[in-house]
Write a structure and sequence with these properties.
Number of helices: 20
Mean pLDDT: 83
CATH architecture of the largest domain: 3-Layer(aba) Sandwich
Radius of gyration: 29 Å
Shape: elongated
Structural class: alpha/beta
CATH topology of the largest domain: Rossmann fold
Distance between the termini: 45 Å
Number of strands: 9
């Protein structure tokens, strides 16, 4: 049962939290994935070694077994590291959360443990250099690696190798300076509490961030870290040490200990099931129905007609991305990024008798020749836009009359997003970046509109949507007040310049109109009428 739980934890941890949300936001037990992966390794390692020894004859000396284990660990290390590096870029959740791409870290730790005294005796003259290099690599990892670093992959080698060097150096020379430094009582004290500290710190940080609607408060986080250390000390004194040393009550012998562990596991599962049942019950209450519906309210064609900018394109879908009467002959094409997908329900509601064809790609502005420089890089955006233009030429012959263009324009122009739970590029808001992006965007967008004008198509460009600081359903569910509103001045600071950028280009084309969509919203508040807006932090049709 415990192994099943560990597998489920690691698989559940891979689920993305949302399109624009911090994946860790709202997951207080996310850190248990590492424990799950560790337990899975402990389950498979004995079986791997039994198989390795089974096919190697009957004479198993200690030296032979050590060498065989090192060979097996080395093979696991090389294979898993290659898998980690190969999958981090395009399948980061797999590379980060699941055992096959992380087992190399356990394997190299096992190799360090099995290296033997002769090996470390040979390293003695280099011991201090290795230990210092290990500390340097660990320090570098702490400072240099951040949320924008593709991880694990190549980046994980630095902290892992640093740990290997540090352990090897301190093992080879027990009287070295680094070992003596790390043997100071405060350092040992932190080491003794580190496991409990790890278990406490993330739930506390995550729960506070949920309460704070995703906002990161550095001062509060520092207080929480200290609180987690205090709780770790209490756990160590009141739970860990008594069980490990005095072995009270059911922990006096092996069998009662196993039954006690099973009972604790069953209690934990029961508590989790009870909390889930309570959450499901809350969803059924009439007062919460608008919020529940808003959290699960997606545009109808999102799963089919919003492409991933980092996955290779096939042939563009046709009939399944058309809504309205006369499905075979679309009259209007909706072209843009995932924000254009938000527009589709409004078009369906406003023009039920008009066939509207949706072609959208997340993170890809509908602008020919505009090179996207904001991470994550959209590898297939250029190819997608090229295919859309070819499709427009094809559809024009069959009766296509207009194109609706929509995108999250401020982000492509290096404006800094206001949503608290959204990752922001470090250079977002830089005046030089914004000025350069404005020039490039206007030039490329002018070329795009010229192509559509030559095709004889009418074009409607939607100006930027207002955006929210907090996720409206989450904020309304937890605050239910004016706290969720966003002053119009903040919205205008975000969208006014991008709107002017678009307006200057639109004014050069007689067949193009710019729609100021911001005026249709309730002064950018999170609840209108009083139905909350759809999931996410961008205002959309209520």
């Amino acid at each position: 049962m415990l192994s099943h739980i560990s597998v489920q934890i690691s698989i559940f941890s891979r689920r993305p939290a949302g399109i624009s949300d911090d994946p860790s936001f709202g997951m207080p037990l996310l850190h248990t994935w590492s424990l799950a992966v560790e337990e899975q390794y402990y389950l498979i390692w004995p079986m791997i070694m039994l198989l390795a020894f089974h096919f190697s004859g009957t004479r198993h000396t200690e030296g032979f077994m050590r060498r065989r284990a090192l060979w097996v660990l080395g093979a696991m290390f090389a294979t898993s590291l290659a898998l980690s590096i190969g999958t981090t870029k395009d399948h980061q959740s797999f590379a980060f959360f699941l055992l096959p791409a992380r087992i190399w870290e356990f394997a190299i730790g096992g190799m360090v443990g099995l290296a033997g005294s002769i090996f470390y005796a040979r390293l003695r003259r280099w011991a201090e250099v290795l230990a210092v290099a290990g500390l340097a690599l660990i320090a570098y990892s702490v400072v240099a690696l951040d949320h924008s670093t593709p991880f694990p992959g190549w980046a994980a080698i630095f902290p892992v190798l640093g740990t290997v060097f540090l352990i090897a150096g301190m093992t080879a020379d027990e009287d070295g300076v680094v070992r003596r430094m790390l043997s100071f009582k405060p350092m040992v004290f932190i080491g003794l509490l580190s496991y409990s500290w790890y278990l406490w710190h993330w739930p506390l940080l995550s729960l506070y961030r949920i309460y704070n609607l995703g906002f990161q408060d550095v001062a509060a986080n520092a207080v929480i870290i200290v609180l987690a250390l205090v709780l770790a000390w209490l756990t160590y004194v009141l739970i860990e040490n008594p069980i490990r040393i005095r072995r009270p009550g059911p922990f006096r012998s092996v069998r009662p200990t196993l039954f006690a562990g099973l009972g604790i596991a069953l209690l934990t599962v029961s508590m989790g099931s009870g909390l889930k049942a309570w959450r499901d019950y809350q969803k059924t209450l009439e007062v919460n129905q608008p919020i529940v519906k808003a959290r699960n309210d997606y545009a109808p064609l999102r799963g089919t007609c919003v492409f991933n900018a980092n996955k290779p394109l096939g042939e563009l879908p046709f009939e399944k991305c058309i809504h309205g009467s006369g499905k075979g002959v679309p009259k209007v094409l909706l072209w843009g990024d995932s924000h254009a997908d938000h527009v589709m329900p409004a078009l369906i509601e406003a023009y039920p008798d008009v066939a509207v064809y949706q072609l959208t790609m997340a993170g890809c502005p509908p602008v020919i020749g505009f090179e996207l420089k904001i991470p994550p890089v959209s590898k297939f955006c250029t190819e997608f836009n090229r295919q859309v233009l070819l499709k427009i030429d094809e559809l024009k012959k069959d009766g296509l009359t207009g194109v609706v263009i929509s995108a999250r324009w401020p982000i492509y122009l290096w404006r800094r997003a206001i949503a608290v739970a959204e990752e922001k590029p470090s250079l977002a808001g830089d005046p030089q970046k914004m000025a350069q992006a404005r020039i490039e965007m206007q030039s490329s967008f002018d070329e795009t509109l010229t192509m559509l004008e030559r095709a004889g198509l009418r074009v409607l460009v939607l100006a930027p949507n207002p955006e929210m600081i907090y996720s409206p359903p989450l904020c309304i569910g937890m605050r239910r007040g004016e706290h969720c509103n966003v002053p119009r001045s903040i919205i205008e600071a975000l969208v006014n310049d991008p709107t002017e950028t678009l307006a200057e280009v639109v004014s050069r084309h007689s067949n193009v109109r710019l729609a100021q969509v911001m005026e249709f919203f309730c002064d950018a508040i999170a609840s209108c009428d009083p139905h909350p807006l759809r999931r996410g932090t961008s205002c959309r049709w209520p």
